[in-house]
Design brief:
Number of strands: 17
Oligomer: single chain
Distance between the termini: 53 Å
Strand content: 35-45%
Shape: globular
Number of helices: 9
Helix content: 10-25%
Radius of gyration: 24 Å
Length: 446
């Protein structure tokens, strides 16, 4: 796979976007916005050293939204011909004519749009042949099997190389776009035999292939994590402190984002309604949004509305300083967009002084959660109940692995009763946070 296999240049995508804007204006649209994108990649999975899947993907698409005053219509196409572009615009206009007016509909204020180009180092193409990809995956899986004879099976080692680019534009004169890449390598193994079998996995993901962990390191760590779970027990039902391992702690921060996002707020379907300016975490919790970190997985100079992104403090000294709003949701709430159409950008939770071992010592006795199952979160009430697995800790030391348990609580109480945040930050997604120690949760087992 060549690293320069885009079928369309950025200039061509811009020309297509402008053609759509021109068609919309000629058709009577009072405003228009358009997104044109193209992406391609390959994924390879090896299982038991045999090639299981080789997948190639190539996609392109165009989406256009037109406005007739406060009436909105949207249509999309994967055909970039001039005839198809006109038909797509006409379809969007037709939809808009039969749509009820919405006072919140429309483009952002022109002054909020991103006007200056910004280089954020988001594109690192990987010219990886399928043969080389297979070799990477085999090395990863081999390293897992080499750890112990108890590594008896594999769910596979996978490698994915993805590259894309896009252009967004609107009738206020905004036009921006850039190429981006994201690659990952993962391994999942099964250990043990008979009634005592466990699985675990690990992966590494970055925009730049040079930053992905070595295949041998990923396979080795996946196997050691799985082996550590052998002999897992169930716990008797109890209340105890709980540590969410760093990869899972990112999900807690994701819960915060969902609860204070515009859609949930204007629909009044969140337990954190009207929480702006209120204390929802302990004093030491600081959460920052940093959209312009070079090379980071959630960096962007503008959001899906074309609004310029900016650094801001989301939580300061435990107090919620800002919501996550798009242009539309902000208008529904009578507020101003925060540049979060499409989601959050690089949320950084300030780490504490302790690593995971230090958090275990601080907890004393309790549960270290390393895997969560199910989707048992009610964002209207904040009630939280998830299947879990991990380790029971006694006197600050892991005593034995546990499984087939459920942890339950309420997110509002969980947030307010965070005892400490570790410095074991794992950078492989949009939310960067160390392990999180919560004062107490209900653990349901035997």
């Amino acid at each position: 796979m060549s690293a320069s296999e885009f079928s369309y240049s950025q200039e061509t995508l811009r020309r297509l976007a402008q053609e759509v804007l021109d068609h919309a204006a000629a058709g009577g649209a009072s405003a228009c916005e358009v997104d044109v994108s193209e992406g391609f990649g390959q994924s390879v999975t090896v299982r038991q050293q045999a090639v299981e899947t080789i997948e190639y993907n190539r996609d392109k698409g165009l989406g256009v939204t037109v406005y007739l005053g406060q009436r909105r219509g949207h249509a999309s196409s994967s055909d970039f011909s001039s005839t198809a572009l006109r038909a797509t615009v006409d379809a969007a206009l037709s939809i808009a004519r039969f749509t009820a007016a919405d006072e919140a509909a429309g483009l952002p204020e022109a002054a909020l749009l991103q006007r200056q180009a910004m280089e954020l180092d988001l594109y690192h193409p990987w010219d990886l042949s399928v043969e080389a990809a297979i070799e990477f995956a085999r090395r990863c899986e081999q390293a897992a099997f080499a750890v112990s004879p108890q590594v008896t099976n594999s769910e596979g080692a996978s490698i994915s190389v993805q590259q894309s680019h896009f252009v967004s534009a609107n009738s206020l004169g905004f036009m921006g776009g850039y190429p981006a890449s994201r690659h990952y390598l993962s391994c999942s193994v099964i250990v043990g035999e008979g009634d005592d079998m466990q699985r675990d996995d690990w992966y590494s993901s970055h925009r730049a292939p040079a930053l992905i962990a070595a295949p041998e390191a990923i396979g080795d760590y996946a196997a050691r994590r799985a082996l550590a779970r052998l002999g897992a027990r169930r716990l008797k039902t109890r209340k105890a402190p709980v540590i969410f391992e760093a990869p899972l702690a990112a999900g807690l921060i994701g819960g915060l984002v969902q609860a204070v996002s515009g859609g949930a707020l204007y629909r009044k379907s969140t337990f954190l309604l009207d929480s702006l300016g209120k204390k929802i975490f302990p004093d030491f919790v600081q959460i920052s949004e940093r959209p312009h970190i070079p090379g980071a997985l959630a960096s962007s100079p503008f959001d899906d509305d074309g609004v310029a992104t900016r650094d801001r403090e989301v939580v300061q000294d435990g107090v919620l300083q800002g919501y996550f709003l798009s242009t539309y949701s902000a208008r529904k709430l009578g507020m101003q967009t925060t540049g979060n159409a499409g989601g959050s950008h690089n949320l950084l939770v300030k780490p504490g002084l302790r690593n995971l071992e230090g958090l275990l010592g601080e907890m004393g006795s309790g549960l270290l959660v390393t895997e969560l199952l199910g989707q048992g979160v009610n964002y209207v009430t904040g009630d939280y109940s998830r299947g879990a697995a991990g380790y029971w800790v006694e006197n600050g030391v892991i005593a034995y692995p546990v499984h087939e348990i459920t942890i339950a609580g309420n997110l509002r109480e969980m947030f307010s009763h965070i005892v400490d945040i570790g410095n074991d930050v794992l950078v492989r997604g949009s939310k960067q946070v160390g392990s999180v120690l919560i004062e107490q949760m209900t653990i349901a087992g035997n």
